[in-house]
Design goal:
The complex is a heterodimer of chains A (363) and B (522). By secondary structure, chain A is mainly alpha-helical. Chain A contains 13 helices and 3 strands; from the N terminus they run βαααααααααααααββ. Chain A has a domain of 230 residues. Helix content of chain A is 69%, strand content 4%. Chain A has a 3-stranded antiparallel beta sheet. In chain B, strands 13, 16, 19, 20, 21, 22 and 23 form a 7-stranded mixed beta sheet that branches. Chain B starts with 6 loop residues before the first helix and ends with a helix. The chains are: A mainly alpha (363), B alpha/beta (522).
Chain lengths: 363, 522
């Protein structure tokens, strides 16, 4: 008797929708085991992680705030991944966007600059992110360098650049030597949507990005190009689509969205530039992109779910003394299961007993 | 019809026998209770269309596939084969249609890799040379495979199988890649093997070959055995009827068409290969008029793919005037621009090149239709227009599918090919370049496609058909040229293009030998 993977005739659309749910279920089971090993009650822990944050208004707003950068970045990444371009460096593009936008905030600080400042910061963040993402893209197109490695390495460059700026030239003179810029002026701050709340304009922008990506992929020839290049490169060339151009385009768009998310994060919830502005949004967004099946609507849902794990993780740390790193473990396990479950879309399990009696089992 | 053949043949025990052999893939029966008996000193044909279950049956006999039910008997005793190694140890050899050779290794190295024993390399090399000489299959053990022609590569596979001294040899479509002369040489070898008392299972869909060579024929259709007969006492038409299960629509012979102005002109096209061991196109020139079908014959891998890439614009040529479509120099223009000029292209590979396999038909209509149609407006896709193309193609070319807009990969080969060809023809192109229009397609679909090409030419288009199937070219082309080592021969009018002449050209006979050798090494 043996368990074999058998290829399906056509990809299963049901499984394509269900596979992220199977992955989540398997992750929860694995996490329960982990909690039990840590000596915590799995039911209570999972409750704190996934139920408690949904029960009060503050946490709900906070989930939306955390989901905003995740969704924006993941939308950009999904375009890259659909086109078979592997941008792993969204974290770096996020940081560079934050730095570029902050430059305008820092230089206009205390001046009479008007309402053009915030829009200018957003544009600067997006442009800087795009240009930064184009470095690995150009290296791949021109020299054949692996964009996976180069984009990843540029994350550390961006990280150190930000570190240098806030410890050196941009440090707040009145900041008691803390490595941070001064609080941004009101004209350089992303407005909140509810007075006294945390939800800000960035969440609206994220929703617009989701809608835009949906229209792009579903209705336009450019979106079609992106999808064909990814799934059938030779057919795409036959169709007259230039794969290299699309690598550049998707990297630029993805970098712009990550950069925009970066400056929104700094000019919004944080309010100033400092090290550690991202708890790994650029990397978590990779999980969001895949968990959301590289589909804009899926990414919106997945982004909210991953944001929930961030909030739940913080609460679990406070109330149950579960280390915050468990959140990262959770996200890693989730990505593992998502990718594993994807094979069920094209394959199904079969139990083979003997050559004469073939039975289907465990679909 | 069920004439068992010469009596003396069947007086003995079958060498190999299948009893109720069945192979099930999910709900699909690839082989349904097949009984077949193969005797020593017999060339047994296995006939059937694509998808009839020939490959599955042979793979089961060679141990590559485990049967779901039924039995395999070797010299009367039931056997269960764990894999090809066990099949080989019994004395079963197989020559596949697609070779498994390493291009960068020598002939002897390739053979040594395929042998199970621990024979020293030098001994293998010597034995290889002996067997090759003995059977009149000349091979230089020291040459690297990439330098060899397809016919020579097939010889390696045959010699490799013969070195195991098999009692039973399976050959899968061996003449598909050979010139007529090479095929004749192969038949001599097969007759010799038969005379030595071996049995041969010969898979083919070329009926005249089967009639000429084989003692017995088993015909499969839809996974079932339809008949076992003596092919020599059947006609090609009766065999075809059994294979297809219906009369095949005859393609109307092309009436005299009036040719118009040149619509596709290629001037002295020379192009270095894009890939390692690719073929260099050498001074290819031809002129194709409206209302005309030009056929390009040749053994695969002689530059046909490279020519297609250059004509379609998948690869650009520096000198624009090298390729002229409807009077406009376009060597440096993209495939999209060429489509806008009225050209259309059908590549050899349906899945992955002509279509994106996992995308719907409407999306695959858009793949080539976006260039010149109402499918795209201001960058937005007109989904209704793409579906209209699918519906029109379905209707005009009788594309059979499970639903209105399925994934390309879910269609059968013949139906997908009808879609791919139909998609282009419905755009009423001025120039159609098509590679292997009916490769791996059932007879019914092939007839529809050939008729469509003839009708398109009659309507005034210039049609360039590249094919390895000489019968196809002789049926539809007005002139036939032959591609060999990147050179294109002058085109022969159909009346002059005998199989013998074309065969010689396919073997490179008319070319200066030195130049040909140089081209092969380039």
């Amino acid at each position: 008797m043996q368990l074999v993977l058998e290829k399906r005739a056509e990809r299963s659309r049901t499984i394509a929708l269900v596979s992220p749910l199977i992955a989540i279920a398997l992750t929860l089971i694995t996490m329960s085991v982990l909690f039990a090993i840590l000596g915590k009650n799995p039911i209570t822990a999972l409750g704190v992680y996934f139920i408690a944050p949904l029960t009060d208004g503050y946490s709900l707003q906070e989930i939306a705030v955390k989901a905003t950068p995740l969704v924006m970045i993941a939308i950009g990444l999904s375009l890259c991944y659909l086109a078979n371009a592997w941008n792993i460096g969204a974290e770096g593009q996020f940081l560079i966007g934050a730095v570029a936008g902050s430059w305008i905030a820092v230089t206009t600080q205390g001046t009479e600059a008007g309402h053009w400042v915030l829009p200018a910061m957003l544009v600067a963040g997006a442009v800087a992110g795009a240009l930064y993402a184009l470095i690995p893209a150009l290296c791949r197109v021109r020299f054949g360098a692996s964009e996976i490695l180069t984009s990843l390495m540029l994350v550390y460059v961006a990280d150190l650049l930000l570190d240098y700026l806030v410890r050196g030239p941009w440090r707040d003179p009145a900041g008691f030597n803390f490595p941070t810029t001064a609080e941004f002026d009101p004209v350089a701050t992303v407005p909140v949507l509810i007075e006294g709340g945390r939800l800000h304009l960035g969440s609206i922008i994220a929703l617009i990005v989701v809608a835009g990506a949906f229209v792009l992929l579903d209705r336009t020839i450019k979106g079609f190009e992106i999808r064909v290049v990814g799934v059938a490169p030779r057919a795409a060339r036959f169709g007259g689509f230039n794969a290299n151009q699309l690598v550049l385009l998707t990297f630029a768009v993805s970098g712009a969205l990550a950069g925009l998310a970066g400056i929104i994060e700094v000019a919004g919830p944080i309010g100033h530039l400092q090290p550690g502005i991202s708890p790994g949004y650029g990397f978590t967004a990779i999980i969001v992109a895949f968990l959301g099946r590289l589909n804009p609507i899926g990414i919106l849902i997945a982004g909210l779910f991953l944001a929930l794990t961030f909030i739940g993780g913080e609460q679990a740390q406070i109330t149950m003394k579960i280390p915050l790193d468990v959140t990262k473990v959770f996200q890693g396990i989730l990505l593992f299961y998502v990718l594993a479950c994807d094979s069920l879309i094209l394959y199904r399990f079969k139990l083979v007993f003997a050559a004469r009696q073939v039975q289907s089992a465990a679909r | 019809m069920l004439d068992p053949g010469p009596a003396d043949l069947h007086a003995q025990q079958p060498l190999l026998q299948t009893v109720g052999l069945t192979k099930r893939y999910g709900d699909f029966l690839a082989n349904d209770e097949i009984d077949i008996e193969i005797f020593p000193r017999e060339i047994h044909a296995l006939l059937g269309e694509n998808g009839a279950g020939k490959s599955t049956l042979v793979k089961t006999i060679y141990g590559l596939v485990q049967p779901s039910a039924g039995e395999l008997r070797w010299q009367g005793a039931p056997v269960r084969l764990s894999g090809p190694a066990e099949a080989r140890s019994l004395g079963i050899g197989m020559v596949f249609q697609h070779f498994s050779l390493f291009d960068n290794l020598t002939v002897a190295e390739n053979v040594a890799l395929g042998l199970d024993g621990k024979e020293p390399f030098k001994a293998v090399s010597a034995r290889l040379a002996d067997v090759a000489r003995d059977y009149g299959l000349p091979l230089d053990p020291k040459r690297e495979v990439w330098q060899l022609s397809v016919g020579e590569r097939q010889r390696i596979e045959i010699v490799r199988a013969l070195m195991q001294n098999p009692k039973f040899l399976i050959l899968d479509e061996p003449t598909a890649v050979l010139t007529p002369q090479e095929a004749d040489q192969l038949f001599v070898v097969l007759e010799r093997l038969k005379a030595e008392g071996r049995a041969i299972l010969y898979i083919s869909h070329k009926l005249d070959e089967v009639k000429r060579l084989c003692d017995t024929a088993t015909i499969l259709r839809g996974g079932r055995k339809v008949a076992t007969c003596n092919p020599k006492s059947e006609t090609a038409a009766s065999l075809a009827r059994m294979m297809v299960g219906a009369e095949i629509k005859e393609v109307k012979p092309p009436t005299e068409r009036r040719t118009t102005v040149p619509r596709l002109v290629v001037n002295d096209l020379t192009l270095a290969p894009a890939e390692l061991h690719g073929v260099r196109l050498q001074n290819v020139s031809f002129e194709l008029k409206g209302g005309e079908i030009l056929g390009i014959a040749g053994v695969a891998g002689n530059g046909q793919d490279e020519l297609f890439a250059a004509l379609s614009g998948e690869r650009l040529v520096k000198e624009p005037g090298t390729i002229i479509i409807d009077g406009l120099a376009c060597g440096n223009l993209s495939i999209t621009q060429r489509r806008k000029m009225g050209a259309a292209f059908v590549p050899e590979e349906r899945l992955g090149h002509g279509t994106a396999p996992r995308m719907r038909l409407s999306e695959n209509a858009l793949l080539t239709g976006h260039a010149a149609s109402d499918m795209v407006r201001h960058g937005f896709i007109n989904a209704a227009a793409t579906l209209r193309t699918v519906d029109r193609t379905t209707e005009t070319f009788d594309v059979r599918k499970a639903k209105r807009d399925p994934e390309a990969a879910s269609l059968s080969g013949g139906n997908l090919q009808k879609f791919v060809v139909g998609r282009e023809i419905l755009r009423a192109p001025a120039v159609l370049v098509v590679n292997q229009p009916t490769w791996g397609v059932d007879a019914g679909a092939a007839a529809i496609i050939r008729q469509a090409l003839i009708d398109l030419a009659s309507a005034g288009a210039a049609v360039l058909v590249t094919s390895q199937d000489l019968d196809e070219l002789l049926e539809i082309a007005d002139r036939i040229a032959v591609m060999f080592h990147g050179h294109l021969s002058p085109a022969l009018p159909r009346a002059d293009a005998t199989r013998e002449k074309l065969g010689l050209l396919m073997g490179g006979a008319s070319l200066d030998q030195k130049e040909a050798a140089h081209a092969a090494g380039a």
